[in-house]
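Tokenised fold entry reproduced for everyone:
>
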Amino acid sequence: MRLFGRETECAALDSLLGEARSGRSASLVLRGEAGVGKTALLRYAGSRATECLWISGVEPETDFPYGGLHRLLIPLLGDRDRLPATQLAALEVACGIADGPPPDLYLVSLAALTLLAGTPAADRPAGPRLCVADDAQWLDRESLRALAFVARRLHAEGVVLLFGLRSEGDELGLLAGIEAREIGGLPHDAAVALLTDVVNTTVDRVTAERVVHSTGGNPLALTDLGHELTAGQLGGSVALPEPAPIGSRLEAHYAARIAAYPPATRTWLLLAAADAGGSTDRLVAAARLLEVTPADAGPAEADRLITGSPAVTFRHPLVRSAIYGGAPPAERRAAHRALATAITAEADADRRAWHLAAAAAEPDEATAAELERRAGRAAARGGHTARATFVTRAAELTPEPGLRAVRQVRAAEASLAAGAYGRALLLLDDVDESALPGPVRGSALMTRSLAEVNTGTPAGQRLGAARCLAAARAFGDDHDRARRAVVQAIELARSAEHLATVSEPEIAGEAARLVRGTTGLDGLILDGYAAFTFEGYAGGLPAVRRAVAAITDPAVSDEALLARLVVGVNFCTLLWDDAAKEGLLRRAETAARRSGALHALDLVHYLGAMTWSLLGGLNEADRHDAAGQRLRTALGMTADQAQVWRHPELATWRAGPGIRESVGAALGVFETLGLGGLHGWTRLSLAVLDNAEGQYASARDTLSGLIELGRPHRYAEALPELVEAALRSGDRRTAKLAAADLTLVAEACGTPRALGTLERSRALLAPAGEAEPHHRRAIELLSGGIGPGDLARAHLVYGEWLRRQRRRRDAREQLTVALDMFAGVRAEAFAERTRKELRALGGAALSPVRERNETALTPQEAAVARLARDGGTNAEIAAHLFLSANTVDYHLRKVYRKLGVKSRRQLKETLHD
């Protein structure tokens, strides 16, 4: 295959395919304007691959969920029985092979990854497998998201995934994280050579350069002009047409040619354009209704604009859009009406409804109702984007204003489910919410709240809880929906905290009203929230415990558990119940992996990293943080978006260079975005760092702004920090008040960490002759907890006290234990404080941070190694980590080499937590 001037691009594609022959996978987006040669490059790659699976996006099919993915996977569906059961069920529903509940997008994506990457080598041709998605801007969004996920997870399968994408449009955002290469016009000499090659006459050099300049080296424009220009124009004796057909003008150029065809030819072309991707029989049947036949395609075939009637293939997508866009509206409607009439199969009823909608010249309730019914079928296949599009069109065709507004709200709900948050807000902006019936107004308020939160608008965070509260009231007697709305208000209020526009007592009052007469999960959550808000630690904890018990009940479904995870974690925090929180997160991680709920899994990792950071379990926090970062990359989150998901509390324990500046910047971001909860916990983290570095007055001032002394509430976990900071900065009064609050909290909670930190605080406040029993009791209690941070600090403060009592040997013993614990998790700030104490005793101090061995595993390798050590097969590990089995094998071989082992048995003997 000869490609003028594309040597560099071809070499890059050859390199990708060459690496694939060695087992390495790759993904690449070829991006450029229409006609620039993306498809030619993709065909070149196809000619060099051993096996090629190819799909092209078709504009009329963008609203049919998973249609593109289904077409790509058809050759592989015979192997689908190899898929894990959850992936198989999701894929079969998405592809219309089986009925079932709407499939999760990422379960479908994982199934596609397994099929594309997991075909046994013995059953595949030798060499790389190439997968091409051309005209990706016209793939349905579900297929594009699924293929983007696959592209980000490919690694060691010998698979190359290429996308062809127009420069305009926002589809590149869906492909975030995948390498993109901009394809521009041909270099000057190559463009001249191409023009000379496609004509049958001599081309004047000056004329050639003018043509190249006016087309920008666009190969399609050069080729078409070369065929259309006369010998006189090419020779320079006749002026060239202006402007040259390129970009948007290229479509107009095709439209002008099509306008000159006979009416029957234009009608045939319009039918083919309106039903691109449809069946031949349907096209012929619709043509018969409009009294045209495949023979009428002759002029367009002679001009090479189409090939293969009646199975029409357009020379370029611009030809199709020129045909359709250039037709008068009445003719377009007639074509769609004929196509709708030609569709008789029930399986194509949604396509028939779409053609009927396109044929409507004015509002039509019958067509609108049919569209809304068919939207449900799209949703059943997981096509929230298609459902939103169908219901939006149904709203446009609805004559009655009230019903039209209701359908717009339903379309906004579907857009929210599809992740099209901006579209949901635009739909709601056209609705007068005050005029909606109560329950519909409640849906609109909930949808607006969640859409604004997900777009990251500060107003969304600040107003979200208030909107959910208003929604709960709008739902009226529908108490189930009202309770769900208030639970959502609790979550959003917890996120916004002091930046929220509604107070906790307001939410608690509504919660208490809705609790009456209910014992369900949401009722117990609302009861716990209301009781704690109004009665605090003194009387509210029993209701909070009942709610936690209900959330963690083994009988609760995975879906319900994940939906109430944030509330559950927050309630466990109020109870200082670390064991319950750790168990809840572990079960939620298993549930999210089992169900393929990757956004929920991302939340689990985020909450896990925060939880373990606050407990000082920094190695486990690292695991969650690394897993969350990998998952966000796979989901296509941009680097800027990921910044909001970083963990300042983890960074402050580590206290690396520039930490105060970076955490200070995070505080500004959190406040700007309305994330008051993250703002508060970050300030607490800075206070912990201040205590570690001996800046006690600063810690006291920070903590005094978080804690309302005399009324221990959300930040009760900061009370031990305030006791130490206030006492060591000379503010004994504040320290005693904080200790009194901590006594109330610890005795109400009764957990090892609560009681242990209370004893540590009492030891700090006690006279010298009474402190030691409190120190020993603190260590005893904290040894029974799961978080090493407070235990290490108990050893540290005990060692500091012993040094002041001149008990040098005992002090060294306690300080050495503390340093070893801090070093084990690389808690550098506290390690340095401990080392200073050891130096004050005389002699050398151990390094506070253990150096990593050069054979240390990467986070991904460590995750694979742990699962292999625990008996997981490659397929099980792949499903657990959302990789292919080939990639697991690749990582496992590297693990063996780094650790010097040869089997899973040796790995079990070598690798320890």
